[in-house]
Amino acid sequence: MITKADIPPGGEGEISVTFKTANRKGQQNKTIKVDSNDPSSPSTTLRIAAFVEIGFDFEGTSLRFGKMGRDEVLVKNANLVVQDPGKTKIVDISTSNPLVKARQEGEPVKTGDQYKVNISVTVGPGLPIGKLQEKVIIRSSDSENPEATLDLYGVIIDNVEVTPDSLNFLVDDSRKFTNQKSQTITIVNYIKSSPINILEAVDSGDNLTIDVKTIEPGQRFLVMATIKDDAFGDKLQLGGSIRIKTDSKEYGEFVVNYGALHVH
């Protein structure tokens, strides 16, 4: 806010700056542009810097769990910053979902001029498939800093993920396009306590050579498919499906459809 807009030649003016610190932490920098009718100096720039100290809040604004199976359990930790644990006490720890648990681990540890409290956050099992968007809420005894909130993000998927769900092959004799004679299917089992094994991978049309590679026993596999040199014959297009059989009673087998194009 400009406290004195009309400044005589050689005079001085004042600009009052109010810095709103809500939802801000640590070093903050702002740029203010001031325009005037002075032809020799039509505008000037002010750079404002401030360091916002945390009285009672999480060190970061969010915790990301990435991609996880619907029956998987993941635990991550976050730091809660408390300026003065003698004055400010944790009154309550809650979450936005009963399938998400949060608790304090140990006593506050002094780091520099602040204290940090380790908060353990456990997600799952049983969350619905889709986006994970939940919160951890911690209430304090300090009326000036009554609450700290941590956002949780992630994606809940099925326990076993097969990607992609379809394949496209391209064999180009004209050299106008990039050949895509080989494709790879990735199978990931997110539940380590329930390992699976691939028994076989079969092409319904006998157009592909298929090789199965174990990356992590019971958990991660690659199914590599390559179109055979004599697969097309006189045809320009082919189609079929790859049936991947497992020893899982829950999933049995996965089917990945494919299409193939021959360009002369």
Fourth-level CATH superfamily of the largest domain: Immunoglobulins
Instruction: Quickly give the CATH architecture of the largest domain.
Output: Sandwich
CATH topology title of the largest domain: Immunoglobulin-like
Cα end-to-end separation: 71 Å
Largest sheet: 4 strands, antiparallel
Question: Could you tell me the number of beta strands?
Answer: 18
How many separate domains make up the residues?
Answer: 3
Number of alpha- plus pi-helical segments: 0
Broad CATH class of the largest domain: Mainly Beta
- What is the 3D form? flat
Strand content: over 45%
Run of helices and strands: EEEEEEEEEEEEEEEEEE
Low-confidence spans: pLDDT under 50, at least 5 residues?
A: none
| Average pLDDT for all residues | 88
Radius of gyration of CA atoms, rounded to a whole number: 30 Å
Overview of this protein structure:
With 264 residues, the protein is mostly beta strands. The protein has 3 domains: 1-52, no CATH class; 56-157, Immunoglobulins (Immunoglobulin-like, Sandwich); 160-263, Immunoglobulins (Immunoglobulin-like), CATH 2.60.40. It contains no helices and 18 strands. The protein has strands spanning 26-35, 43-52, 56-58, 62-69, 74-82, 90-95, 100-111, 114-123, 130-140, 147-157, 160-163, 166-172, 182-189, 198-203, 208-216, 220-227, 237-246, 253-263. It has a 4-stranded antiparallel sheet, with no helix packed on it. Strand 1 (26-35) and strand 2 (43-52) form a beta hairpin. The model has no long low-confidence stretch (mean pLDDT 88).
